[in-house]
Amino acid sequence: MTKQILLIEDDPDLAELISDYLSMNYYEVHHAPTAQEGLDLLEAKERDINLIVLDLMLPDMDGMQVCQKVRASKNVMINKVPIVMLTAKGDTTDRVLGLEMGADDYIAKPFEPRELLARIRAVLRRHETPNQADTNSGSLTFGRLTVFPDSHEVTIDDKIVRLTTHQFQLLHYFATHAGKVLNREQLWQAMPNDDSSENIDRAIDVHISRLRALIEDNPRQPKRIITVRGVGYQFATDQV
């Protein structure tokens, strides 16, 4: 079945280039030049859209806001749609912020269409095909927190904690290496990112801070993800 892509991009020339290239590679593209038109299209085609390619700078709404609206949707078919964000900003903080707002990947302009295609394929694979080890591993429970590798879900007190792909992969890596002290390079390699130009230390620290805000009872005094000064981080085996 042909995969359907929702492209939210206000630059008509770039939108035409992306649409033509993806169509040549057997994707069906629905183009919206504004954020609101994109959200309307997503709602109308909720069961058909497999992925969103989203520009950060739009005339009526910031791409970050679009991410938030999609992830906050009560419609499960909508809030789980993966998002690849396009932006002219290449700063590490901007990239991390985009990912933490709910994007699954991030590509800075200018880019080669084949790079965008590769990232789209990678994101779709991550969402559609959990690896065999995950499928067979069962849930991982630490006190009130449980990680479900097969469904990419996390619960605390049996309530679902909504995480981005990056956040889940980072937490899952922690959970499968509980008790071990992990350096930032190890944690970086555990997440879906192939841009070696990133400031790894800064990016990981931001990821950890955002993840703590979601899973710690008190992020200022973390009990699950512990900082080991001068080395990295450790995921506690004994949690309440």
TrEMBL record:
SUPFAM superfamilies: C-terminal effector domain of the bipartite response regulators (SSF46894), CheY-like (SSF52172). Residues 4-124 form the Response regulatory domain. Residues 137-237 form the OmpR/PhoB-type domain. One of its GO terms (biological process) is regulation of DNA-templated transcription. The modification 4-aspartylphosphate is found at D55. The keyword Magnesium does not apply. It comes from the Bacteria. PANTHER family: DNA-BINDING DUAL TRANSCRIPTIONAL REGULATOR OMPR (PTHR48111:SF4), REGULATOR OF RPOS (PTHR48111). GO terms for molecular function: phosphorelay response regulator activity; transcription cis-regulatory region binding. Residues 137-237 bind DNA. GO terms for cellular component: cytosol; protein-DNA complex. InterPro entries: CheY-like_superfamily (IPR011006), OmpR/PhoB-type_DNA-bd (IPR001867), Sig_transdc_resp-reg_C-effctor (IPR016032), Sig_transdc_resp-reg_receiver (IPR001789), WalR-like (IPR039420), WH-like_DNA-bd_sf (IPR036388). Keywords: DNA-binding, Phosphoprotein, Transcription, Transcription regulation, Two-component regulatory system. This is DNA-binding response regulator.
